[in-house]
Amino acid sequence: MTFAVYLPALLSVLLVAVSKAAARHTSPAAVTRGLTLAAVGAATAYAACLSFLALTLLDDLPPLAAFDHLPGLPKPVPGPVALVAAALLGWGAWRLFRDVRTRRDTHRELRSAGSPGAAGLVVADWEAPHAVAVPGNPGHILITTGLLRTLDGRERQVVLAHEHAHLRHRHHRLTALAAAAAAVNPLLVPLRDAVAHHAERWADEEAARQVGDRGLVARCVAKAALATRPQLALGGASVIGRVSALRRPAPHGRWTRLAGPAAIVVAIAAVTATAAFEFVAVATAWLHLA
Amino acid sequence: MAVTPSAGRRPHGALEAEVLATLAAAGEPMSAADVQRALPHDLAYNTVQTILIRLLEKDAVQRRPLGRGHVYWPRHAEAAEAARRMRATLAGRPDRAVVLQQFAEGLDDADAEVLRALLKETP
């Protein structure tokens, strides 16, 4: 097996770098969808290549181990490399399991917080300012009195429109896919964060279209963030990015702007196919002996 | 007041949600006229009244007679229970907060300064 099997990991790093630049002038809807797709593709390729490497460990098991010193046999990767690959694969599986479990438990518990009824809204009498889109069928909004009281009538309309946009476009699926990809391949963590950020941007833009005032949405996002206590701090950069973006004209760039990331995904697919062929060649040679 | 640009494409139940949010934000019982004034739309009184009745029928709000009409407020027991469960799910669990689509996360002091500066420039 040659270098092709190691390339998806390297190309993941390149994908992250290129995506950051491509996202700047593109509509958040296209970025969210495009980067999710790219992340899932890159993670799949990464897992496949790690599996090829890890599977070469099988030649050390009986009965294949008996043929280890025969001449003319294609040499698989060195044992330690295969071991590292197996460990990375196991680590990724553990992270994936944990991410899926956290997501499922959190959503289930929030769904049980109250029945949304006709309004599709559950109000929690809590001073901490939170508004959450709780996915489900059809999904609902969970909002605290703490946030509602900080905002005026138009700002409340913004928050509700923003959370409705999350539910309508099923953003939880995209963010969950990107998070799963980043769990399997930790090099994609920046891509996961970018998808989460652009899903928020997408919902901001939809809310702005609905209330017809980008400045209002910007002030509303800032107000809610400033009202949140610092110990819950998670995404300062994300909020500042959203407010700055809302002060600029709405981005209209379409899919074509994502050509860079798309090209890298195609390259990842190509090297993974190459690695797969090489692996099959090695495996067939060994299986002929056995 | 102008009709909001979105009047035609508001999702189903959005007005109910806004009325319920208005009642919850007020923290005290409101008449249909109070709600009408608090909403940013140019809604007819009868529309507000209809939404309030619908919320009442779905058990989302309570009301009592006052003067010639009624005053409405959200059900407190449900809101307290929702808060208890929400707190149990999220408080002190940053790993759970990050999996959610939250409207706004908190900021540290430096980021808060940047944001305040940004707001001053925003028209």
Automatic annotation (TrEMBL), chain A:
Occurrences of domain Peptidase M48 (ranges): 107-183
Cofactors demanded by this protein: Zn(2+)
Cofactor note: Binds 1 zinc ion per subunit.
InterPro entries, alphabetized: Beta-lactam_resp_regulator, Peptidase_M48
Coiled-coil ranges per UniProt: none
Keywords annotated in UniProt: Hydrolase, Membrane, Metal-binding, Metalloprotease, Protease, Transmembrane, Transmembrane helix, Zinc
Record family assignment: Belongs to the peptidase M48 family.
Protein name in UniProt: Peptidase M48 domain-containing protein
Species per Swiss-Prot/TrEMBL record: Asanoa iriomotensis
UniProtKB/TrEMBL annotation, chain B:
SUPFAM superfamilies: Winged helix' DNA-binding domain
UniProt keyword terms in alphabetical order: DNA-binding, Transcription, Transcription regulation
Family, similarity comment: Belongs to the BlaI transcriptional regulatory family.
Name this protein carries in UniProt: Transcriptional regulator
